[in-house]
Amino acid sequence: MNISTIAKRIVITAFCIFAAHSVSADTNLQLISPKEYQVFQRSSMYDGYIRVRGHIRPDFDILQVRISGTSLKGSLSGEWQTVTLLQQSQCFTVVIPVVPGGWYKVDLQALKNNQVVAQASVDHVGVGEVFVGAGQSNSTNCAQYKISQTSGMVSSFSGESWRLADDPQLGTHDKTKDGSFWPAFGDAMYVKYHVPIGVAVTGHGGTYSLQWLPDNPMGLFSWTMTRIYQLGSNGFRAVLWHQGESDVTENTPSDVYVSRLTNMITQSNTLAGWQFPWFVANVSYVSAAQPTNSVIRGAQQRLWATGVALEGPDTDTLGSDYRDNTGVHFNPNGLHTHGQMWADKVGVYLDKVL
Fold first, then answer.
1. How far is it, in rounded angstroms, from Cα 20 to Cα 160?
2. Residue 214 in contact with residue 224, Cβ under 8 Å?
3. Distance CA 13, CA 35 (A)
4. For residues 289 and 178, what is the distance between their CA atoms, to the nearest angstrom?
5. What does pTM read for this prediction?
6. pLDDT, tens digit, for every residue of 245-293?
7. According to DSSP H, which parts of the chain are helical?
8. What angle do CA 224, 352, 71 make, to 5 degrees?
9. Cβ–Cβ contacts within 10 Å for residue 228, how many?
10. 38-54 pLDDT tens trace
11. Which of 18, 169, 195, 280 is close enough to 55 for a disulfide, judged by CB 3.0 to 4.6 Å?
């Protein structure tokens, strides 16, 4: 059994233990989903859902849920809806269709003889666009300066919890604690689409393509796959891949880079059991003295041309004026520009599929 299969089973098992990570203060009504600041991936411009799941202990006559807030089509009805328990258990799980938007408030209440005997609420739940991030340092928290989202509509997922996506981002494999482009990307996406944006960042600084192969003992691929399993089938829009600098220093041949990325992308879809796109950035910038590498850039462009990946931003165009003192990571201006560049490229695709 490979490590990705093991990780998938662990995730599924953990999600069945409702009490483990309850967001409810009322121990009689334990709520595992949604979590505070969670974003659910919409299925189309005006179609989406919120999954409500948990466990209830006291004797009751009826369990109800309501969702309130403002969607892309205006205010939700905020009406109470009855929730049915799973057969022969005190567990419940229900998928409620919701027009994309938010933040929404989700309330639950259990009634006995028309009296409330248990209740729970989550104040910030969104239905919008979710993205998984992977790659090396410029995809993680390696910039010298932290930035923050300014819209209040961008959240970050660690694998266990969600919060507003101010730097540092949650969930990276390298556990870095500094700055990233993700807050700026999320803000730019929110300005364009007016729905909450979720990011799940999984990268590791200084890594090259060999280390990302599914069978590599470093476990980078497995780490990203775990987040993909946690988000679930159709639970995010795409993977955003920003990596290549280390393959320049490793002198990776173009054919080898293409083969490795193709393997990784194909395996991720196969193991997840559904098809999702990867965006691959054009990136080979090592320093001001070595700002571009035709071998790695050519490999990334071949991935686009053959349909293995979608076209990400060309960040080699961001020269020393956009870089911090490390020479390769971005300063605040670079981070904001980088985020906007990603939003522009993702938007070209998203405008078509929506």
1. 10
2. no
3. 18
4. 25
5. 0.93
6. 999 999 999 999 999 999 999 999 999 999 999 999 999 999 999 999 9
7. 3-15, 182-193, 220-231, 245-249, 254-272, 294-305, 332-353
8. 80
9. 26
10. 999 999 999 999 999 99
11. 18
Residue 4: alpha-carbon gap to chain centroid = 18
| Structural contact between residues 309 and 337, judged by C-beta atoms closer than 8 angstroms | no
> 295 by DSSP, 3-state: which?
helix
Sign of CA dihedral 331, 335, 336, 338: positive
Q: Which residues, in sequence order, are CB contacts of 262 under 8 Å at separation 6+? A: 303, 308
Query: Rounded CA gap, 130 and 114, in Å?
Result: 39
Cβ of 47: how many Cβ atoms within 10 Å?
Answer: 12
Largest CA distance in the chain: 76
Residue-wise burial string across 75-87, b where 16 or more C-beta atoms lie within 10 A, e elsewhere: ebeeeeeebeeee
**Residues in contact with 268: Cβ distance below 8 Å, sequence separation at least 6, in sequence order:** 221, 224, 225, 228, 239, 276, 278
Place of tokens 């299969």: 5
- In one-letter notation, the amino acid at residue 43 is S
